[in-house]
Amino acid sequence: MQKKLLIILNPIAGKGISKEILHKILGFFRDRGYVVDFCETKRRDDARKTVECLSDDNCKIIVIGGDGTFNEVLNGLRNWKVKLGIIPTGTANVLAKELKIPFDITNACEVIAQENELQLDLGKNEKGYFALLGGVGLDAMVVKSLSSRRCGNISYLSYAIPIINSLLNYKYPRLSVEVDGKLIENNAGLVFVGNTKSYAGPIEVTSYAKVNDGAFDVCIVKMKNRLSILKYIWKAFIRTLPESKDVRYTTGKIVSVTSDLNVPYQIDGEFAGYVPTMFEIVPRTVPVFVPKSILN
């Protein structure tokens, strides 16, 4: 039986990769007997459209890009038996960090070639599936602002102006949060619904989350003003946010968030819409290649 591989490359993820490195990746898998197809995305949704018609269980998909490219692939898949590999080249690479996937290109290829699988939980809402985290409030406002001005590659510096604008203009709404049908908070200012520990860079907001435990970790912040948000940002940087005063932390399978105001939300770092919204966990849905050490 032929070993089939579809490689999807986002050339503007992070700093991008050179043609030399791309040829090295293609050669790595062809030398190991794979029949390799290759797709380079040119615009939003190309990755999703590419995988929509893929029905062959024996074909594996490698995503060369960041978390956004991986999210597009998730939302294009119609066959959950297809196995996914990651070669991280994005800005944050949250999922790759969570799964201990090497950032060295050759080592990342070796992880895929060894074919050790982890069954990854996914989140789901009316906008689609996500692997990392949903955020309601200020962080979604930042993401929305960045999305409206993005042109080409982004770096952490790209977030500076959207963060400043959002801090100055955010209205600190009251959010109501239900977890598994129970009202947990009716005066939240910020809500994170996480499948992963990491948010971006060194920041953690759902610090006890596991990617295959069948539940979300939910971090609810009673944010009242600019001074309080700066304090909570610092707590997230030093990874102590869940233990902070005025923060509620819980787990659950279904999380609903509502408000009287038009409050934005994001999933996997992409603006997705406005509340009300509901997040639902879909346990152990998609197989992803990971280092053997993470399975022990």
From TrEMBL:
Keyword Cytoplasm: no
InterPro entries linked to this entry: ATP-NAD_kinase_N, Diacylglycerol/lipid_kinase, Diacylglycerol_kinase_cat_dom, Lipid_Phosphate_FormReg, NAD/diacylglycerol_kinase_sf, YegS/DAGK_C
Any single Gene Ontology cellular-component annotation: plasma membrane
Keywords tagged on the record: ATP-binding, Kinase, Lipid biosynthesis, Lipid metabolism, Magnesium, Metal-binding, Nucleotide-binding, Phospholipid biosynthesis, Phospholipid metabolism, Transferase
Residue intervals of the DAGKc domain: 1-129
Domain of life: Bacteria
Broadest EC class assigned to this enzyme: transferase
Record-listed E.C. numbers: 2.7.1.107
Keyword Nucleotide-binding: yes
An example molecular function term from Gene Ontology annotations: metal ion binding
GO BP, sorted A to Z: phospholipid biosynthetic process
UniProt cofactor(s): Mg(2+)
Name assigned to this protein: Diacylglycerol kinase
